[in-house]
């Protein structure tokens, strides 16, 4: 699992290039493209959080205090990374603002 997640994060966009649809099917494949992009982003955030966990594990094995300042810094950075990833996903999945045509002026 430790090696499979980063490798899949790197190889998944390459797979998208190989399987990219032709010009005729681009409008139909747009929702799948968005879902695929969200999936790659979630994989990247998960890989980053596992990297922080691995760094903290190696630091604790080398004699770092469990509740030391370095451990709190790594944990805080991992939490900020996860929260940022969650807010990005929420902003992508939220409803877009209304188009400008709804509030534009029209002739009377």
From TrEMBL:
Record membrane topology: Multi-pass membrane protein
Chief localisation class: membrane
Protein's recorded name: Cytochrome b561 domain-containing protein
Cofactor needs: heme b
Record field: transmembrane: 32-53, 73-93
One Pfam assignment: Cytochrom_B561
Cellular component annotations (GO), alphabetically ordered: membrane
Subcellular location: Membrane
Keyword Iron listed: yes
Residues of the Cytochrome b561 domain: 1-93
MF terms (GO), sorted A to Z: metal ion binding; oxidoreductase activity
InterPro entries: CYB561/CYBRD1-like, Cyt_b561/ferric_Rdtase_TM
Keywords for the protein's UniProt record, in alphabetical order: Electron transport, Heme, Iron, Membrane, Metal-binding, Transmembrane, Transmembrane helix, Transport
